[in-house]
Amino acid sequence: MILERAIFAIKPGCQKEFEAAFARARPHIETAKGFRKLEMRPGIESPDSFLLLVWWNTVEDHMKGFRESEAFAEWRKHLGPFFAAPPAVEHYEETL
Amino acid sequence: MILERAIFAIKPGCQKEFEAAFARARPHIETAKGFRKLEMRPGIESPDSFLLLVWWNTVEDHMKGFRESEAFAEWRKHLGPFFAAPPAVEHYEETL
Q1: Does B6 contact A at CB distance below 8 Å?
Q2: Closest chain A C-alpha to B69 CA, distance in angstroms
Q3: Quick check: A90 contacting B, CB < 8 Å?
Q4: What is the rounded distance in angstroms from the CA atom of residue B91 to the CA atom of residue A46?
């Protein structure tokens, strides 16, 4: 199980709207092939920063299966308007 | 349960030594008060980057209970020699 880590810098003061948008976006990722679980957390030191962790079966499930799907377009339609910068996304191997 | 996220940039080519050092360091954090679980993962796009996630009961369990303990000095003694830069550490609230 690999891990996707995305850091979202959102527009200042939009935390509550972003959280509401995430609630609407969430089903579009949770039903993707290879999706295992996620955590979405607001920053403590930086409240305009959110950390998204998604555990996937493979990188391809994320980068091809999800990112090239209609569901991703829906997901991004909800969240994109709140981004202050492009999300910083990295993938990580199995945990030690 | 809050989340600590640390990104370790390690010296190029030292992945295996860093993983071995982490195996020795691990008991020093896992026995800390308020520790719940951790994941330590090598980067896929950036093999010299590791992501450490630690789920703690509270920020204070991490920043005071652990960081000011003898156990932290031991932990850092194992891992510190491999750092190419100071770790980037942030804390995150409960997951949505």
Answers
A1: no
A2: 22
A3: yes
A4: 9
Range of the domain at A77: 2-92
Residue A3 · residue B5 · CB < 8 Å: no
pLDDT value at residue B46: 94
The reported pTM is 0.95
What interface predicted TM-score (ipTM) does this complex get? 0.94
Task: Assign residue A22 the CATH number of its domain.
Answer: 3.30.70.100
Interface check for B16 against chain A (CB to CB < 8 A): the answer is: no
Which 69-88 residues of chain B touch chain A by CB within 8 A? none
- Alpha carbon B21 to its chain centroid, in Å, reads 12
Model pLDDT for residues B2-40, shown as the tens digit of each residue: 999 999 999 999 999 999 999 999 999 999 999 999 999
pLDDT interval class at A68 (50, 70, 90): very high
pLDDT at A13: 93
Contact B93 A59 (CB under 8 A): no
Residue B43 CA, distance from chain mean position: 14
> In chain A, which residues have their Cβ closer than 8 Å to the Cβ of B8?
none
SS3 assignment, position A59: helix
- Report how many domains make up chain A: 1
